[in-house]
Amino acid sequence: MSTLTNLFTPNFMLLQTTFFLTTWLTLHLLVATHGPYPSISTLTKYNSRFYSLISLLLFLLIISPFPSHDVLAREAYHLSKMYEYLDIFGVVLSGGKVDLHFGVHHATTVWLTWVRVLREGCEGWKWFAGANAAHHVLMYAYFGGWNGERVRRVLLVTGQGQLVAGMVVDAVVGWGRWNRGEEVWRMGVSGGLLGLYMGLSLRELRVGRRVRAGEVNEEVREEVEGVKGVKGE
Q1: Which run of H or of E encompasses 67?
Q2: Is 187 within a domain?
Q3: Tell me: the pLDDT tens digits for 210-220?
Q4: In this predicted structure, what is the pLDDT of residue 5?
Q5: Contact 81, 114 (CB under 8 A)
Q6: Which of these, 42, 2, 13, 3, lies nearest to 145 by C-alpha position?
């Protein structure tokens, strides 16, 4: 286990999550007091283009057949989830709303990777990580300005597909480890979080369809306030 991996103790993980939530709240209060910063939207767009490229490199690292790349791939993938905190900060500073799916996802994926990817003995991690990185190549390119209905439709498929792939792999790996008398809690945590993301994503899509269909009543409006905004996965 590398020095960097050893750095991510439970206390460190709690500390970095506290930092993330505290910064999020501080920026929210800053915008509430002084107003949004429109120029941040431009920076966010360029950051999305940059992260699309990083996601491509990360994808290639994850699928590398060389065993010597395994630890580096695990650590880089885990660190990438902390880098994604910038998504939340950018949306808040530009005056946007962080929807339920977006917020929960960004606050918890770093814990998913810590449990399921970073530590040894988590076979099968590359299936979801690779699919997730590939999805991010397209998604962040889309956020960076690569618009189009076809791209949006592809993202709907890849977004759900990566989650299904991750849950299936967790179930298969977990079952095998259970039969061998090995620990399975990591797969349970990972599969549970992926299921949560899928549930929130489907809820968001359902609300979006109702809004587009013109079913805008008080109930839908309240529901949209809780889930509609800038999406991220």
Answers
A1: none
A2: yes
A3: 776 766 554 55
A4: 81
A5: no
A6: 42
